[in-house]
Amino acid sequence: MKDKTKRTWLIVLGSLACVVLVVVIAGQFGSKCAVDPAPGTPLSSETSPQVTIETETPSVQISESSASETSDPSTGADSEGTEQTIQADPVKPETPEKPTTVADDHTGEDVPQEERNAETPPTYTKEQTTVTEPSEPEAGSTNSGGQVYVPGFGYVDNDGGNQVVEDNSIYENGNKIGSMG
Amino acid sequence: MKRIFTIFLSVLLLLSVAVPAFATGDPNIDGGGGGMGEGSSSSYWNPGMDGVRVSVVNAETHAVVGSVIDLTNQNPGTSLVHFGKVCKLSYNGGRSLSPKVGGYSCIHPSQSFPRIISSGSFPASINAIRSYFTDEQTIRGISGYVGIDFETLVGGKYKIVIEPIAYFFFNGLQYAMTATEAALYDQQVNGGLRAKMLSLTHKNLPLAIFLEKADLGYPAWSGSTTQKVSNSDIISALGIGVVRFNDMTESPVTNSFDYEYRIDTDVITSVEVSGGQSDPDNPVSVRFNIQGTTYTVSNVYYPDGDSQLVWVRWHTPTEPCVITIDVSVTGGGSAQSTVVCNITDFAGKDPPNPIATDRNDAYAASPVPTNVEATSASWGIWSPRWHENWEWVPNWEKCWHTDHWTDADGKSHTDHWYHWVDRGWWEDHGWWEFDWNGYTATLNAQMDMTPDDKSPAATGNTTKSGYGVQENVTAHVRTNQSAAVTAAQNAVTYFPEFGYQTYWRLLDPTIIGKGSSFAFRQNRYSTYNRRTHFTPIWFPDGAYTPYTWLLDCWTPAGMLSMNLTDSITIRGNLWEEWHIAPANP
Questions:
Q1: Please, are residues B197 and B170 in contact by the beta-carbon 8 Å criterion?
Q2: Distance (Å, whole) CA B138 – CA B462
Q3: B465-483 pLDDT, tens digit each
Q4: pLDDT at A23
Q5: pLDDT tens column, A97-138
Q6: Closest residue in B to A112 (Cα–Cα)
Q7: Is the pLDDT of residue B305 over 90?
Q8: What whole-number distance in Å separates Cα of residue B170 and Cα of residue B176?
Q9: Got the DSSP string for A15-61?
């Protein structure tokens, strides 16, 4: 191979290595940014870190009264006579109030001046045009007391790690003594 | 050049090792003989993540003895949600789920046990499971953890209950649960578990182990072994294996009749309805034709794939007979088509007239009998709840107005103007959801025997044989669904002098609400028409212990009943109250 060819190869390979290094280094910058310590911040790791954990009250609370607010369907059961029911009739929720504020039987005086002769109709926020049931806390989320939310039960204390026993006595020796069915 | 190329490749290789590799979550969701319901990246099960719960129970009383343990080959994660170490028999006895997070204990057996729960790619072998859990050394090892001597454990008095356990993720949380716990938890989350983990929790897990021979009061499973099953099927029959050490099995109490009732009694007859989904838009109702009268029971709802117990309350006739109730279901569901009821009468077996010369030199005390006893029952109702999801559909229109006014010069003006009005409407895109509401009934009762007030020889609770004794039974049933429960309506008392058979007394009830009290009926051999029973004059000194079976407290889940006893002390006999003396001079 001629010297010129060698040089060309060296330049190409060197350039490629540089590109790869740039990509890798840039990737590291993109994932985490180094931050200069603020003046006065101790640099030694031997100093106890001063960490403030904000204990915000969860924005969603499970209302204990929700069960009592919902009437027990069994109270409407009827076990007398020949027409019986095992629970009350289910009831669908009422239609929400209209999002508009102008009554059907309004008069001209009820309409604010700024709403007159507008070229386009007003617009709504999403909250005004959708009504749905609030969702429960996410499974596994924790509250300020460190309890874990278990669907169906609410917040439950976390009892910590597991206890696994490595056994040395349970194995088959080939002598069958019971029957299983 | 070759050296340079080699160095360059080495640098590239090192760099490639240094760059971290990230993998997006693609959980191993195994079909398990079908799809995993609507399994998702947060709700899934990995094949092989299984174990067993091992309990030892007394074969006769069904009481769980010793410690309950979980065996698994796996390492469940921390912060695992579980329900403690509770045996299926305890749940069927009325115990409820109690969730725990973390603190899960389990045992890694020295020899890994075979796959318990089948998956589509790896079917479990019931023969391998049988071989493992009937092996002497396996049972020796288990006996040590349970805390029961091996020889005692295999002596025939005890049986080992094996329940399959699955470790899986549901809505991002890892759970450990047996089949029974899965069914109970599904009720707790109103069918949410079944909706996402159907093939695991309602097929492969409960069908992993089931009985081929009825035992411990559980039936042999005769249903499909490849189809999904309901919560009630799981709770009553599935997810249980029994290791026994003799040939004694105990089938559920079966009768040629579906129900045994007493005459002239308020009773409840139930059937299980399933098939499709029943909601207020597609309701199911059940008709019971009882001796020509049709009772229609409505407001019967359940989610798709589950079932609902449906009951009718009626009054039995005044004469013994056998009644076949025809059951028909309107709507999409189905139920058993007939219910056969045997109506019996306890009356007419009052003891004969006692006389002073009665003797029974061969008397030997008999053991106090025990009848079927159930002091609590639980059932549930699926209640539909509309999950509202309203969306406003706007319909803007111009609303024109006309103003008339007069200016300062007295000139009249007319202005036409408009504003926007929304003549839209709400559309509800909601759906029916189901809440599971559990109900219970518990029977409490007490029996008191006392010497008859007219007895001249009574001191406290002691009397002489030959005199009468009186009985008072008080009973009360507590329930959170009053309309579905009757009071205890009948009580029958058996006596030791007849070996607790041959003759008995049907007690006279007084029923107020859910409370009832019982006493002897008036004794036709009593001079004063007392509510009394005469003890035999030959009865030996000591405890005199009548036995009472309190029954006919009906719930949708069956009859509540209690065995009751109380004693009075016999000391001396009626003859001692008499003496020979000269007549008045």
A1: yes
A2: 56
A3: 999 999 999 999 999 999 9
A4: 61
A5: 888 777 778 888 888 888 889 898 888 888 888 888 777 889
A6: B419
A7: no
A8: 10
A9: HHHHHHHHHHHHHHHHH----PPPTT----TTSPP--PPP-PPPS--
Distance CA B141, CA B147 (A): 10
> Mind spelling out the 3-state secondary structure of B133-184?
HCEHHHHHHHHHHHCCCHHHHCCCCEEEEEEEEEEEEECCEEEEEEHHHHHH
Shortest alpha-carbon distance between residue A36 and chain B (Å):
25
Residues B199, B228: contact at Cβ < 8 Å?
Answer: yes
The two three-digit tokens of residue B529, written as one number: 């028409």
Token digits for B550?
């309190």
N- to C-terminal Cα separation, chain B: 154
Q: Domains of chain B (ranges plus CATH)?
A: 50-243 (no CATH), 259-344 (2.60.40.10), 376-380+436-577 (2.60.40.10)
Q: Do B481 and A74 touch (CB under 8 A)?
A: yes
Query: Strands B64-72 and B50-58, how do they pair?
Result: antiparallel
Instruction: For residue A177, give how far its alpha carbon lies from the nearest alpha carbon of chain B (Å).
Output: 6
Q: Residues with Cβ < 8 Å from B1, sequence gap 6 or more?
A: A1, A6, A9
pLDDT digits (tens, 9 = 90+) for B212-255: 989 998 999 988 888 889 999 999 999 999 999 887 766 666 66
Q: Give B402 to chain A, closest Cα distance, Å.
A: 8
Residues B51-65 have pLDDT tens digits of 999 999 999 889 999
Nearest residue on chain B to A76, judged by CA atoms? B483
Candidate from B12, B108, B137 with C-beta closest to A164: B108
The SS3 call for residue B14 is helix
How many angstroms separate the CA atoms of B570 and B2, rounded? 115
CB contact under 8 A, B134 and A122: no
Taking CB atoms and an 8 Å cutoff, what residues of chain B touch A108?
A: 401, 403, 417
A152 interaction partners in chain B (CB closer than 8 Å): 99, 185, 188-190, 192
Contacts of A49 (CB under 8 A, 6+ apart): none
Q: How far apart are CA B49 and CA B152, in angstroms?
A: 32
Cβ of A25 under 8 Å from any chain B Cβ?
no
Please check whether residue B96 touches A, CB under 8 A.
no
The two three-digit tokens of residue A49, written as one number? 């870190």
Helices H / strands E in chain B, number of each: 8, 32
Q: Does B15 touch chain A (CB under 8 A)?
A: yes
Cβ–Cβ < 8 Å for B20, B119: no
Give the gap in angstroms from C-alpha B554 to the nearest C-alpha of chain A.
13
CB contact A82 to B (< 8 Å):
yes
Host H or E run for residue B186 = helix B179-188
Q: How far apart are CA B288 and CA B297, in angstroms?
A: 8
In this prediction the pTM is 0.73
